[in-house]
Amino acid sequence: MHNKYSLWAVNIFGVFKIVLLVVISITGLVILGGSTSIADPHANFRDSFAGTTTNGNDLSNAIVNIVFSYTGYENAFKVVNEIKRPVPTLKKNGTISVLLVSILYILCNIAYFSAVPKAEFAASSQIAAGVFFTKVFGPRGAAALNVFVLLSAFGNLLAVLIGHARMIREIGR
Asked: What own/partner pairs with CB < 8 Å and gap ≥ 24 does 130-133 have?
């Protein structure tokens, strides 16, 4: 309905996602510091690759999942008409954002493996974040994670819809 408000909404959800990644990362660092009731948070970091797969299909699946986690990057190009000085802005901010999110994803994975033993991950049918939130924050944490996933997915959906609407509008012009 309004360009400015729709971009604000996308930015609010984007900030929410970054804050959530930062909270998970800090939680992992606190766990590694030994300030929690998690027994032996360093266990998964001793002989880290023991029991992992060398199956090419599993490895290619992992790489596809990694690439998919960065698919939101192109949404910035869909609203490029609304950015002042788009080329230098996207070069600088795109690089910064990909580096920041990459570091936060790595720290989140460290947090997951500091809180939950590998065997528990392997036996669980939940995603890693679900096992992590249940282990660290209890059942209420797992319920909160559902809300976080909902808000994150809604923010992604909103960004994609706004980006596609902007593309259709520009094609129509």
From this structure: 132/24
- Domain edges within the chain: 3-69+76-172
If you count DSSP H runs as helices and E runs as strands, how many of each does the chain have, helices first?
Answer: 6, 0
Residue with tokens 């209890």: 138
Classify residue 173 as exposed, middle or buried by CB count within 10 Å of its CB (0-12, 13-18, 19+): exposed
What is the tens place of the pLDDT at every residue in 4-56? 788 888 889 989 999 999 999 999 999 998 878 888 888 888 887 777 778 88
Tell me the C-alpha distance between 41 and 124, whole Å. Answer: 19
Taking alpha carbons only, the member of 23, 19, 22, 30 closest to residue 115 is 30
Contact 19, 155 (CB under 8 A): no
Q: The tokens of 91 are what?
A: 């070069």
- Compute the distance between CA of residue 91 and CA of residue 89 in angstroms, rounded to an integer: 6
Q: What is the pLDDT of residue 16?
A: 94
Measured CA to CA, the distance from residue 136 to residue 116 in angstroms comes to 9
